[in-house]
Amino acid sequence: MIFCLADKKDALQIAQIHKNEIDKGFLSSLDIIFLGNFYGALIESKFSFCIVAKEDDRIVGFISGVFDLDKFYRYFLKNYFFQSVVLLCKKVFNISYIKKILETLLYPVKEKNLPPAELLTMAVLKQFQGQGIAGKMFFEFLGEMKKRDIKTFKVLVGEELKSAIAFYEKNGFTFLKNTTIHNRKSSRIYLYDIK
Ligand SMILES: CC(C)(COP(=O)(O)OP(=O)(O)OC[C@H]1O[C@@H](n2cnc3c(N)ncnc32)[C@H](O)[C@@H]1OP(=O)(O)O)[C@@H](O)C(=O)NCCC(=O)NCCS
């Protein structure tokens, strides 16, 4: 198994793993091409990165991070949003859908006093879970954060994602507070201090 920075061509495979393994979240409800564009932007922009675990060239897990969430969203809107908007057209006239997009984009504004860096998403294919893969990806993740001299980052995790909550608590994250986005869906915010 190898752990490395993702390449742009990995974006769609990563999006597929996201859709399969984080099936309850808002991002998972997006069209696969849109989600692929989102990961393409994460891989490409200088404000973000994505690490993958590969077995024989097949991606079995990933972890993504941003050094500055606000700057990343601006990069995404500038470079990808309008080319992706056609994909949203079917849903875009649905008010609750627009609300969810705005909530996702505005959450950094709403939660003002948080560090700009964030662990954005992480997933391992079900058949590969429980083998320490996320732990190894997280080690590489910390390396990338350190290279950018990041001292603290946050993660927002849905209350229903029990395996992820267990992972963060096992790996030294500190619970900060509860928050609600997406129609009062409860989420937790954790912080991680890099020693
Ligand atoms: C969270 C997730 C990425 C962990 O991946 P993983 O490769 O199975 O994790 P690891 O094997 O490295 O586990 C490390 C530690 O995390 C904790 N952990 C991971 N999965 C757990 C689970 N299902 N239940 C309880 N604890 C768990 C354990 O403490 C584990 O250490 P241990 O095995 O020594 O007890 C994986 O379960 C997953 O993809 N979940 C669905 C997607 C998700 O919720 N993503 C987070 C949203 S951003």
Short description:
With 195 residues, this protein is an alpha+beta fold. 45% of the residues lie in helices and 27% in strands.
Written overview of the protein:
InterPro entries: Acyl_CoA_acyltransferase, GNAT_dom. With about 200 residues, the protein is α+β, with helices and mostly antiparallel strands. The protein is about 45% helix and about 25% strand. A hairpin with a 3-residue loop joins strand 6 (about 175-180) and strand 7 (about 185-195). It has a seven-stranded mixed sheet with strand order 1-2-3-4-5-7-6, sandwiched between helices. Helix 1 packs across helix 2 (about 30-45), helix 2 packs antiparallel against helix 3 and helix 3 runs antiparallel to helix 4. It has a single domain (about 1-195), classed as Gcn5-related N-acetyltransferase (GNAT) (Aminopeptidase, 3-Layer(aba) Sandwich). Coenzyme A (COA) binds next to strand 4, helix 5 and helix 6.
